[in-house]
UniProtKB/TrEMBL annotation:
GO terms for molecular function: DNA binding. SUPFAM superfamilies: Ribonuclease H-like. It holds the Pfam family DDE_Tnp_IS240. Keywords: DNA recombination, DNA-binding, Transposition. Gene3D superfamilies: Ribonuclease H-like superfamily/Ribonuclease H. Residues 69-143 form the DDE domain. InterPro entries: DDE_dom, IS_Transposase, RNaseH-like_sf, RNaseH_sf, Transpos_IS6. One of its GO terms (biological process) is transposition. Involved in the transposition of the insertion sequence. This is DDE domain. It comes from Shewanella psychrophila.
Amino acid sequence: MKLNFSGRHYPQDIIMRALRYYLAYKLSYREIEEIFSERNIHFDHSTLNRWVIKYAPMFRRRKRRVSGSWRMDETYIKVKGKWVYYYRAVDKFSAIIDFYLSETRDEPAARAFFNKAINQHGLPEKVVIDKSGANAAALDTINICLWLSGHMLFMIEVLAGSLGKGLNRPWRVLSFGP
């Protein structure tokens, strides 16, 4: 059964991640609210309660391992009437690895996003990013080798299509390892 998130103030993956925390780790609504506020995503615990009532019966409890190949991008979206930068990484199977909302598009925001994703899922084999200087600078602090890759653009635009913004920029592939 497909979940319908139309009319919600938050993107689908934010709601899904909050539900996952609640179902998989048995955290309280207020604990989940605090976890998301650390990521600069603010919602009330009663909002989470409404999400659980509506979506938990349809939400399957399983944790998928993410692949070693990540695709990362940031875009500008409106959340509750306010424009913010939405950082998101997906693996090659379109599974969402992590996300982060930030008021700024700069190196500290990109670094916070990558640190969170790497701490939670481990070091990937490679990461495909756009030509954003902030993303490249954040990954340079982790001592990553960069090179250009143009063949991933279409796939990332398809994955980000739910956000309504098509990007047309060259992409970089980042390789982790020896």
